[in-house]
Amino acid sequence: MAKRIIISGGGTGGHIYPAIAIANQLKAIDPATEILFVGAAGKMEAEKVPKAGYAIELLPIVGIKRELSLANLAFPFKLVRSLLKARSIIKNFKPDAAVGVGGFASGPLLMVASLMGVPTLIQEQNSYAGITNKLLAKRAKAICVAYPKMEAFFPKSKIKLTGNPVRKDILDVTHKHPQACVHFGLNPNLKTLLIIGGSLGAKTINESIDAGLKTLIDSGYQVIWQTGKPYAEKAKKAVESLQSSQIYTAEFIYEMDLAYAAANVVVSRAGALSVSELCLVAKPCILVPFPFASEDHQTKNAMSLVTQNAALLVKDANAKEELIQTALHLLSNPQKQQELKTNIQQLAKPNAAQEIAEAVLSL
User: Fold this and answer.
1) For 275-295, what is each residue's pLDDT tens digit?
2) Residue 21 falls inside a structural domain
3) Together in a domain, 151 and 240
4) Is residue 250 domain-shared with residue 222, that is, in the same domain?
5) Could you tell me the strand order of the sheet in which 285-287 lies?
């Protein structure tokens, strides 16, 4: 009889893409598996999940704002409505298991699922567990993590070190360099700097790159610059003013396999998914953690690489002074690039999706 699985969570690409990778792997193991996503209304998953071919139900849940805000007054009511809707979804869908990948919706859905006797699995992507997952862990049957030493947050007996699931197309990008240069209109003989600031872009990274764009080009390097929507227009004007064929800029890059294939060095935020992808593609990277992420988890993600000499770190507060110089220094130092590449590759977990899917089915 076909298994029925609920996957809940979202909010950012860092939660959604691993969730889709798990769903795809479950389908690969048994195409008859029925999968239903549960996300938060008004968030990215409402668009990305149906685009990937899966049905989704949306809860009215929102996050609590950390500063004093009138919006927080609505939180208890939205939480109750979300718990009731989650109960209705579970009664109707009758899942064999429920998976939480983080994000607003995973809290109410997994809590209700566990109370209704549905076995639950948590997929914790970061090196520092959030409050919701710590609470959900008490009732979860299994917890798949991406970093060692997570027994600081979860019962050791439930932990499986699997890594973060990523898109299949980036598992091997080594042979795609010629194709990537054609796609982005770049010179295959020049070294390329790739800038990715998460699915929405990163203001500090964008401003730092903007200020140093001419220096990068004058030094003989190429740039692939994913800006995110808020900075896209500004970046376009900056590129037009330089009139250089050595820069490719886009609001969002869908062909990330080609972007990684073209890159010699990568500048990135330190979200869990970005870090996992960088390990898999084994690219020398400069991480600029987002300082306002909950529990400062991006800095902790970055430090798990930096302490093993597998990445360089530039603090967000120092990026405008240091980022361009750090990038130039790394681009001109093949020995350091090779050192970082060798060390980051050892942290890769290419079978994460398979291992998590098997853990779900074993419930």
Assistant:
1) 999 999 999 999 999 998 877
2) yes
3) no
4) yes
5) 247-250, 222-226, 192-196, 265-268, 285-287, 312-313
